[in-house]
Design goal:
With about 180 residues, the chain is α/β, with parallel strands linked by helices. The protein has a single domain, classed as Rossmann fold, CATH 3.40.50.2020. About 30% of the residues lie in helices and about 35% in strands. It has 5 helices and 9 strands. It has helices at about 25-30, 35-45, 60-75, 130-140, 160-165, and strands at about 10-15, 20-25, 55-60, 75-80, 90-95, 100-105, 115-125, 145-155, 170-175. The chain has a 5-stranded parallel beta sheet, with helices on both faces. The protein has a two-stranded antiparallel ribbon with strand order 1-2. A two-stranded antiparallel sheet has the order 5-6. Helix 3 (about 60-75) links the parallel strand 3 and strand 4 (about 75-80). The longest helix has 14 residues, at about 35-45.
Length: about 180
């Protein structure tokens, strides 16, 4: 479904969550059976020969896209969660936000040095969350297969920040200029 028109089901909501922001609502796209299948198939197809053994997705919308991509590829899924959400020993990574810091965590046994990990998320804006996940993966000594996104906000130049952390391929189905 390489020619699928994803944007017809992505709604732009002005001034949400605050004035001046145009929120990109993907819920109509993933609610549509054909649209959701096109998203999952598009990312999975692109990375099908990358040797992926695990897919990692960040809370929460990364779960919605990452888990079905993992299923499609026939590999495991690793949820990257906010602090305090995982019940066993964790490995964590703190990262900078516009105002302050945040942290993501995965279980300490979620990955091994033999894993080849694909990062999947619904959206990449500045690239901060993706870089935090890259650093988590590096703590395990894993290889990064690539980064797959439903949507990329090109005007925020996320690839510049991602390139400081990895030379892995960044692939996005939709580019917002």
């Amino acid at each position: 479904m390489a020619d699928y028109d994803y944007e017809k089901l992505i709604y732009s909501i002005p001034d949400y969550p605050e004035p001046g922001v145009i929120f990109k609502d993907i819920t109509p796209l993933i609610a549509d059976p054909e649209g959701f299948q096109a998203v999952v198939d598009g990312i999975a197809e692109h990375f099908k020969d990358a040797g992926v053994t695990k897919v990692m997705g960040a809370e929460a919308r990364g779960f919605m896209v990452g888990a079905p991509v993992a299923y499609k590829l026939g590999v495991g899924f690793v949820p990257a969660r906010k602090p305090g959400k995982l019940p066993r020993e964790v490995v964590s990574e703190e990262y900078e936000l516009e105002y302050g810091t945040d942290k993501i965590e995965v279980h300490a046994d979620a990955l091994t040095k033999d894993d080849v990990v694909l990062l999947v998320d619904d959206l990449v804006a500045t690239g901060g969350t993706a870089v935090a996940q890259i650093h988590l993966i590096e703590k395990f000594g894993c290889k990064i297969a690539g980064l797959g996104f439903l949507m990329e906000l090109d005007f925020l130049n996320p690839r510049d920040l991602i390139a400081t952390a990895t030379d892995a391929e960044v692939f996005s189905l939709v580019h917002v200029k």
